[in-house]
Amino acid sequence: MNELAITVIGRDRPGIVADVAEVLARLGANLTDSTMTRLRGHFAMTLICTGPAAAEVEAALASLAAEGQLLATVRAVTPDGDVPPVGEPYVMAVHGSDRMGIVAAMTRVLVDAGGNVTDLSTRLTGALYVVLAEVELPAGVADTLLDRLHRTAAELGVEVTLRPADPDLL
Amino acid sequence: MTGEERGPEVGLGDWTPESLDVPGEVRAVVSAPHPVLSRAADEVDPRAKETVQLAADLIATMKVSPGCVGLAAPQIGVGARVFAVDVTGHPKAVTVHGTFVLCNARVVEATRWKPGREGCMSVPDLTGDVKRASRLVVEGELPGSGEPVRLVTDGFEARALQHEIDHCAGLLFLDRVAGAHAVYQRKVYL
Q: Which ranges carry the ACT domain (chain A) (predicted)?
């Protein structure tokens, strides 16, 4: 079974998801994990599919791209199974005046503490810049990490919070 | 309300799991997708022998499942409005009623809604952010005696009750997540 990594991005308009999903379904490509979101007027889709050969999907999406302003990429990837968890889930929130290098500096602090970012989104609205990250941290590092995050945030002139996001099993 | 009319008793009275007086059997927990988890369960007769056995089975299955604080009949494949809850010792619990089973339970008051991240034995690989009332009044009947009761609770026990009542209505936490980005892969197994 082929596993494909597909990205589609284009000027947002109603029907992009339906159009792309329809093409994939017609080819027998099974959409597994995906995120699709609007980023400043562009619609961005990142998905993993299983099924047909990459070339076949690429050709089918190219026909769709030709009609509008969609850019699609398709490549075969090797499924390598799940990455074992680093530890406990946390949410990091950063906000403040926009400037160069906020994501770079803050995520570097996370990585240096052994953390692994599993989800991240940023928004710029007016002068306000917002970063939200889901991050897995090794047990026991959160307190010292928070000190380092505060120091880096202070240098950048932004605010940071880090809170546990451990689920309750019901 | 006149003095003659009495609402349901507040609290569990002298009900304990031992009042069921039958040994519970550990049952297999079903996972989504399964049709029994997605349809509204049927009302039960709380005095019926099979309801009492079901209550005992729910408690037995909940007790052997690590970290499990609640289990609804649909989760063991039975489409009946019965569930067990026990949040004793949970760090987020405030009011605690111990181990109990309710039949035909319904929410009568729900206030102070708060977000929280939930997982479910029937959806083992995902968690999600769900708003639940942190002040809750629930009415239902006790298995065995059939006594109508009213439970007033809060915090984590309130969350657990809403999660189990949802199961009895054919709803999973997935039906209530806060948005398209509020479901997460669950990687830490208890």
A: 5-79, 91-163
